[in-house]
Amino acid sequence: MKQESGATHPIWEDNISLPTTDHLRENRKCDVCVVGAGIAGLTVAYLLAKEGKHVIVLESKSIGGGESSRTAAHLSTALDARYTNLINTFGEDGTRLICQSHTRAIDKVSEIAKEEKIDCDFTRVDGYLFASTRQDEEKLLKELEAIQQFGWMDVVLRKECPAGSLTALPCLHFPNQARLHPMKYLAGLAKAFIDKGGEVYTDTHVVDFKSGPVVTATAKSGHAVSANHLVVATNAPANDKATIMTKQAPYRTYMIGLTVPKDVVPDALYWDVQDPYHYIRLAGNSAKDDGDTEILLVGGEDHRTGQENNPMKRFQDLERWTRTKFPMAGEVRYLWSGQVQEPVDGLAYIGRYPCDFDNMYVATGDSGQDVTHATIGGILITDLIMGRKNPWAKLYDPTRSGMKGAGEFMKYNLNVATQAKDYVTPGEVEDPAQVMPGTGGIMRDGTNKVAVYCDQDGVRHKFSAVCTHMGCLVHWNNVEHSWDCPCHGSRYDPLGRVVTGPARKDLDPLK
Ligand SMILES: Cc1cc2nc3c(=O)[nH]c(=O)nc-3n(C[C@H](O)[C@H](O)[C@H](O)COP(=O)(O)OP(=O)(O)OC[C@H]3O[C@@H](n4cnc5c(N)ncnc54)[C@H](O)[C@@H]3O)c2cc1C
Ligand code: FES
């Protein structure tokens, strides 16, 4: 399988066999065109194909080639946005529905895996939100109070955490959570979709979206798919400039996989309430089975995309934190990073995209919980396209005001505004010769900034550092070997080609 753009290697990419696909070679018509073959795109495509719709999926890279191969795949109802916050924003009734939608999503993943016989290590496990300090303990008690306020009585306070080395303080016990192997699930989902008459075109990057009674998605090659409905499931919506991207912020999040002696860490999901936050699970047997040891996956140390000069330090901090919590941990076998979209009010944006016609849909704003959000998206958008009512539609409506999370909305957009400072700061290098092989650096050239990449053969490639989404300046990411935009998280490979939207166009090459 292809890696994102360089340096790191997610555990889920080992020994995966994906259905064979081709790129789009001619203009096509269908009922529904889905852009993006991650968990969100393939779930909605599969559910619509099951309803008898002719669905075509267009994907820039490979199946699961975006963030879905980088997830930790905790399937959880212990929402990162915290019920304490959700209840303030969405009220008791809304929060109860949110909780029900995530519960339904975990059940739905289980049903799909069973029905399609997808061997993806789907396992029901319990989850524990733990405190590391007395202050954290207060947060747990408040969270429990909010949970009980909207009527969920299954969550209880436990005096001891089952993973004793993690903490001596209490934790909240969330029963009936789950974990899976995301790429095995996606490979099975893609196969089931294709068996139902669905078509997937990979290496097909969409550069233009046209709304109208018939919607058109045009690929870089010039070939287009026309459809009655279009679903944009590109993680950050590739059709959007500022409608949604001002209401969510991109964060890089880091993961390591280390060996631990078998059967020493109880099989469960664990999360803390610190900032930056940490999440933990066992990889499971289908990911890696190594005799006396198994792989423990620990994630966290998030930061705003393009706003960390030394991302390698995040891995070091994560490893240090892990070794204090799991002194029995052995060598680090895997490390990788990925991107999540944090909506201002903690809830994904799923539903009709605001435009002149009501046949364009979007699923974004994963909030680090996209296995469930993507499944909610699949159910919800399928209902909208099939003309059925859905009780979650209003909650997840992409047109809802950013003011529901007014504080975060102001913070996100102030942060974006301050990135304009990059236009007046000096470059990191004064001459392209200062950029070493395998690295990138930003150089000032008069009033312009230039992104310089030196390949392994010593050839230096130069691009305008101006992000093609809305004009902020990109930064070099020395962990993933990519150019990252600090405003809305677009990312480009070392040669300036789009890796992650919302940008659709590559960086402008310079002579
Ligand atoms: C390290 C990490 C840990 C996480 N942990 C969890 C977790 O424990 N639980 C959880 O629920 N979620 C978690 N998440 C979040 C979630 O799993 C992922 O964000 C999710 O899988 C994203 O799915 P997606 O389908 O929205 O996006 P993606 O998988 O990124 O799929 C979008 C696809 O669209 C394609 N695309 C983009 N632009 C275009 C274009 N113009 N034309 C054609 N194709 C395009 C991309 O190539 C990509 O394949 C985590 C994420 C990360 C990175
Ligand atoms: S991602 Fe919006 S300006 Fe770069």
Structural overview:
With 511 residues, the chain is α+β, with helices and mostly antiparallel strands. Among the domains are: 123-178 and 249-341, 2-Layer Sandwich (D-Amino Acid Oxidase, Chain A, domain 2); 424-510, Rieske [2Fe-2S] iron-sulphur domain (Rieske Iron-sulfur Protein), CATH 2.102.10. 24% of the residues lie in helices and 28% in strands. The chain contains eight helices and 25 strands. The chain has helices at residues 39-50, 83-115, 134-149, 182-195, 311-325, 370-385, 393-396, 406-418; strands spanning 28-35, 55-58, 74-75, 123-130, 156-158, 171-179, 199-201, 206-210, 215-219, 224-232, 248-261, 269-272, 278-282, 293-304, 332-343, 349-352, 360-364, 439-445, 448-454, 460-464, 475-477, 482-484, 491-492, 498-500, 509-510. Strands 3, 4, 5, 6, 11, 12, 13, 14 and 15 form a nine-stranded mixed β-sheet that branches. Strands 1, 2, 7, 8, 9, 10, 16 and 17 form an eight-stranded mixed β-sheet that branches. It has a four-stranded antiparallel β-sheet with strand order 18-19-20-25, with no helix packed on it. Strand 8 (206-210) and strand 9 (215-219) form a beta hairpin. It is globular. The two termini are 32 Å apart. The model is unreliable at 1-5 (pLDDT under 50). The structure holds flavin-adenine dinucleotide and FE2/S2 (inorganic) cluster (FES).
